Structure formats: C-alpha cells, structure tokens
Amino acid sequence: MKSSIVDSIKSLPPLSKTIVDINKIYANEDASIHDLAKVIEHDPMIVANLLKVANSPLYSFGREIRNVAQAVSLFGMGMTRTIALGNSVRKLLNVDMQPYGITSEKFADVSSMQAAFIHKWYKNINKEKADKLYLSAFLQETGKILIASAIIQDDETISFKSEIENSNNLAMVEKAYIGVTTSEITAEVFEHWGFDREFIEMIRFADNPKEAPEELREYSTALNIVKTILPVNQPLSERSINFGLKLAEDAGYQRSVLEKVIEEMTESHIETAEGMND
C-alpha cells in the first residue's frame, strides 16, 4: 500500500458525535426508533441526506417522506444508521472522483444503489444476512476516495481514467497502480474507526472473495457480485450485468431472483436519471 494512503488513513479524524451517538443507540437493545430520530434531528446534513434517500425511486415508499421520524420508521434502525454513516464518511473525506470519471454526487448515488440492490436481493435469501450486507454494500467503495486522491497526487489521472473506462475489473487496475484494491483500503479505514471485525473482514475480501475466511465467504462474494453489476463508473451496463450474473451462477445463486432485482433497479435508475434531467 502506498505510504500516502497509509498516512491518509492514520490522519483521518474521528467520526462525529452524532455518528457515535447513533452507534450507541443501535447497540442498545432497549433503545427505540424515537431515540434514534431525536439524535439525527440535531444534524441538518444527515437529515437532508436521509430524506433525499427516502424519497428516491430506489425505495418506492409510494408517498413523500417529509420528516426524520417517518424516514426512520420506514427504514428501521439498521438502514437509517447505514445512510447516516455513509453521509458522514463522505463529509470527512475529500471526495474528488475524477480518476474514476465520475462526480462525487454520482459516487454517492452508486453507493446507495449498491446498498439498495443487495437488500432487495438478499431479503429473498436471508433477512438477517440482508441487514448485515446493507451496511457493508453502502460503504464498501469508500477506499476509492483515497485511491482517487493518490492517483491525482501522482499526476496519473488521465492514464488511470483511460484504463478504468476500458476495464472489466476495476480492482485489477487499482492493484496495478497502487498495489492494493478498494476493499483492502476500505477495511483499513473502518479498522481505524473501530468498527467490528466481521464488518471489516467481509469488506476486506470483497475484491477477492475466494480468499475470504470460510465463515465470511458468502458475504464477500455477495458484495463482489453487487459491485460487479454496479461498478461506480458504469452501473447496470449490459457488460457489467453479464459479468455479475456469471459470478452469481458460479457461486450457486439462483439467476432468476437476481434478474428480477436487476430489472427493478434498472427501472429505478432510469426514473432517477429522468428526474435529474427534468
């Protein structure tokens, strides 16, 4: 791993008090959704992002969500925590995604898409696992922020971007340029912030799930499939879908269930794009 990335991870500031409080509430079995909503209401940025996500076509709640209490009630504590964490992580990191050929807004949108995708998919397989994977999918691409920064510092944006555009495997390009992949960096970031070991390790092997410990291999494989279908620069492209379906079949997943989620997500993606163009 490049020394500049190691230094960037070591110098990351602590998570905000709001996020610390959210994590405490989430870990407290006696805490309620009302307790969580009260904490979030004091952070305008988290409120704005939570309502934006709640009203996106990704979740199709069927009505406008106007306040935090509504959003938290619909999402539940786990998903609300995930959305709040994702927003806070991006605020702490300097997000410039030029080397990947996307804007910071696009990066945030694809992270949300990956999380929504894995939840829609895995709730048909195992609800408990779906909840665990939601947080991991939402945050698994965090390392790309630090990779992009390192590529910019090394003045390699043009060549890196060119290779990314023409590659079927973003992790291989990352490895060639900086010696590590997004999943490895993301794991180090959340280890720095003191997250639990299971969460860290399922992400660490998401770019190479065959190397994952047996008890976590299913999680890492699922994350890999989702980031293959929804790469940050070409989510839901015909090429990425075909590669992702092949990975899923090789791993023993039922193709028809995944294809149904792809269809739903493609429709939501089109609605979102049309909304932005109005």
TrEMBL record:
Domain HDOD: 12-209
Pfam families: HDOD
Domain of life: Bacteria
Protein name: Signal transduction protein (HDOD domain)
Origin species: Sulfurimonas gotlandica (strain DSM 19862 / JCM 16533 / GD1)
Taxonomic classification: Bacteria, Pseudomonadati, Campylobacterota, Epsilonproteobacteria, Campylobacterales
